[in-house]
Amino acid sequence: MKVLVIGANGNTATRVVRRLAAGPHAPVAMMRDPRQREPFDRLGVPTVLGDLEYPIDHCLAGCDAVIFAAGSGGHTGKDKTVLVDHLGAIRAMVSAQVRGVKRFVMLSSLNADIESQSKIAHYHRAKAHADHYLRESDLDYTIVCPGRLTDDPGNDRVTISDQLHGNGKTARDHVAAALVLSLDLANTIGKSFSLLDGDTPIDAALRTV
Ligand SMILES: NC(=O)c1ccc[n+]([C@@H]2O[C@H](COP(=O)([O-])OP(=O)(O)OC[C@H]3O[C@@H](n4cnc5c(N)ncnc54)[C@H](OP(=O)(O)O)[C@@H]3O)[C@@H](O)[C@H]2O)c1
């Protein structure tokens, strides 16, 4: 499968690209800054330039699946959260629909809620709006909702649940593994689940969703 990784230069997405490059699928790394190309060139991973605030249809040419792992981050204004995490994500989904790319794996968040009153309600609302569009679409989606992301080394053990609210932390290594493994697990299609560090081997946990 040729898999477009959106937000490829991010902390989680670089792990996604490395995992894909080591396996049977062929990643294509999407980024908005050409200066970020070099590490992907060294890995032998093709890159494509695209900014979620503008049309990105060209980035999906020839792809079979999308992993969306971009985000405006905590240091930009609320406007960018809407433009990237909400509207940019939907733009990517519409591009997938236009290009006939059916498989779409979304990195969302625990506590994404259209009526969120959390301290970062603008973010949780943006993620929820994007997830809602995806669930209502005709795409073969999987929505992975981690807790607070850490750079702890993964041990491939997690807890997965259909309870999408709560607290906890998730190693980025575990998020990357779940996003990539979901591509090949048909039982994850049409599912949204939380992903926290835990005790169950990740592959076994994913098979229960
Ligand atoms: N942090 C948490 O605790 C947490 C918890 C749950 C879920 N999440 C979700 O997980 C996601 C990934 O987290 P992370 O720490 O890996 O993120 P990250 O390192 O901040 O990476 C985000 C990536 O998105 C890219 N991006 C931003 N705006 C873009 C645009 N307009 N067009 C294309 N790409 C764009 C960034 O590219 P540039 O280098 O060009 O900026 C960057 O490569 C977050 O965005 C969030 O939605 C986070």
Commentary on this structure:
By secondary structure, this protein is an alpha/beta fold. It has a single domain (2-206), classed as 3-Layer(aba) Sandwich (Rossmann fold), CATH 3.40.50. 34% of the residues lie in helices and 24% in strands. The protein contains six helices and eleven strands. It has helices at 11-21, 38-43, 78-99, 121-136, 172-182, 202-206; strands at 2-6, 26-31, 47-49, 65-68, 103-107, 140-146, 148-150, 157-161, 169-171, 191-197, 200-201. Strands 3-2-1-4-5-6-10-8-11 form a nine-stranded mixed sheet, sandwiched between helices. Strands 7-9 form a two-stranded parallel ribbon. Strand 1 (2-6), helix 1 (11-21) and strand 2 (26-31) form a beta-alpha-beta unit. 46% of the residues are buried. The model has no long low-confidence stretch (mean pLDDT 97). It binds NADP nicotinamide-adenine-dinucleotide phosphate (NAP). NADP nicotinamide-adenine-dinucleotide phosphate is lined by residues 7, 9-13, 32-33, 51-53, 69-73, 84-85, 88, 107, 109, 146, 148-149. The site of NADP nicotinamide-adenine-dinucleotide phosphate has 24 residues, from helix 1, helix 3 and strand 7.
